[in-house]
Amino acid sequence: MSAQIVVRKSKDRGHANHGWLDTHHTFSFASYFDYKFQAFGSLRVINEDIVQPTTGFGTHPHQEFEIFSYIISGELQHKDSMGNVEILKAGDVQFTSAGTGITHSEYNIHPTLPVHFLQIWVKPDNPKLKPRYQTMNFPKTSKTNNLVHIISPVDDQDNSTIGINADFHMYASLLESGHKVMHTVQGAEKPRRVYIHLTSTGGELKINENTTLRQGDGAFVTEVKQGDEILFESIGDKIAEFVVFDLA
User: Fold this and answer.
1) Domains of the chain
2) Which of 55, 101, 159, 161 is least surrounded by Cβ atoms within 10 Å, i.e. has the fewest?
3) 60 is in an annotated binding site
């Protein structure tokens, strides 16, 4: 395998602190724009957000995106125009296929604790889809020293993953110091690409024994194909919590 790995340091991401919201943007978003970082295949948004207690995002519209939140810590209340009301906690992944259009709000209703989560947007393979909502929980015990499959294309989906309308897979892990996990690249379409994000909760992650990520860093992996393997090793003194996106 001749994988090409390019690291995006945490400090190089877009950043805004609005008081109630401390947010980092991997790709151009809102007032942050960098022509070199607008998308990676169908992956359009990775925002790492920390929302303070009793604040949040008011009701706003979305369409033509697959939108999902990966809760790292705290609690996030979701409400949408489809009638869904839910309080999401660590380990939950909340998925919305916005399709032809929805509105939703996301609030931290906890009186004292912030909520820390990743917000991810992916362009679907087809437009004008019917909106859809799904939440699944992937507990800490399942992700510890394991790479758990969280999202898969609807055509390949089973009841252990959330289905997405794209050639896209998501995995997550909580890797203790000294432990390793392996990812096998999915999808028959060539070429494939992989993005890895190490959350800002700490830890250090080595990729293929020659690339190191520190908290908040990401890595763009190209020149890979179905069946190639990517090795991850936690080398810091804290648990490395990270997600992996495998896409066309």
Assistant:
1) 4-247 (2.60.120.10)
2) 159
3) yes
Contacts of 175 (CB under 8 A, 6+ apart): 144, 145, 181, 203, 205, 232, 233, 234, 239, 240, 241, 242
DSSP 140: H
Report how far Cα 3 is from the mean position of its chain's Cα atoms.
Answer: 21
Burial of 94 (0-12, 13-18, 19+ CB in 10 A): buried
Q: Exposed, middle or buried by CB within 10 Å (0-12, 13-18, 19+), for 230?
A: buried
**pLDDT above 70: residue 38:** yes
Residue 62 is assigned to a ligand binding site: yes
Report pLDDT digits (tens) over 96-128.
Answer: 999 999 999 999 999 999 999 999 999 999 999
100 Cβ contact partners less than 8 Å away, ≥ 6 residues apart: 63, 128, 129, 130, 131
Tokens representing 180 are 């390793």
Q: Is the pTM of this model over 0.70?
A: yes
Residue 173 has pLDDT above 90, yes or no: yes
CB 189 within 8 A of CB 153: no
